[in-house]
Amino acid sequence: MNPFSWPVRIYWEDTDAGGVVYYGNYLRYLERARTEWLRAKGVDQSQLAAEHGVLFMVRAVNVEYQAPARLDDRLLVTCEAVPEGRTTVIFRQRIFKEGVSAETERELLIDATVRVVCLDGRTMRPRRIAEYIP
C-alpha cells in the first residue's frame, strides 16, 4: 500500500533571507499532511472535538533533516500510520523534493517519526483511538 501524500509549494513566507525553508516550517508541513490524511479517511477534527470532545496531541517528534528545500520547490509530504496500543498512533512521515524533469527522481529532504495520542478534551486523559479513526 502506498503512503498518503500531500503536495506543498515553497513560497517566500516559508523561507529565511537566503531563500531556504526555515527548519520549523517542516513541522507545519508534517501536521498538514496528517490533517489531510484524516480528511481523506472522512475524519473531521473540528467535528470530533465539538461532538465527542476528542483531540489529537503530538507527544513526540523525531526529525532528521537530510537536505534543504528552497523557494519555489515542489515538495511531496507522505504519511503512514502505525497504531501503537489503544490510544496512540505512530506516523512515519517523509518530505521529498519533486524532480524538475522525468529523469530527476525525488530527493528525500526530511525523515520524521511523529507519535500522536488521542485525548479526551475535557480531562486530557487518553481515549481509544480506534473509535474515531477508521
Describe this protein's structure:
The structure is a single chain. With 134 residues, the protein is α+β, with helices and mostly antiparallel strands. The chain has one domain (4-120): Roll (Thiol Ester Dehydrase, Chain A). The chain is built from 2 helices and 5 strands; from the N terminus they run βααββββ. It has helices at 25-40, 45-52, and strands at 4-9, 54-65, 74-84, 88-97, 107-120. The chain has a 5-stranded antiparallel beta sheet with strand order 1-3-4-5-2. A hairpin with a 3-residue loop joins strand 3 and strand 4 (88-97). The model has no long low-confidence stretch (mean pLDDT 92).
List the SSEs and their pairings:
Elements: E1 4-9, H1 25-40, H2 45-52, E2 54-65, E3 74-84, E4 88-97, E5 107-120
Antiparallel strand pairs: 1-3, 2-5, 3-4, 4-5
Kindly list the characteristics that best describe this protein.
single chain; 134 residues; alpha+beta; Thiol Ester Dehydrase, Chain A; 5-stranded antiparallel β-sheet; 5 strands; 40% strand
Query: Unreliable runs, pLDDT <50, ≥5 residues?
Result: none
Topology order in helix (H) and strand (E) letters: EHHEEEE
Shape: elongated
Radius of gyration: 16 Å
Beta-strand segment tally: 5
Short description:
The protein has two helices and five strands. By secondary structure, the chain is α+β, with helices and mostly antiparallel strands.
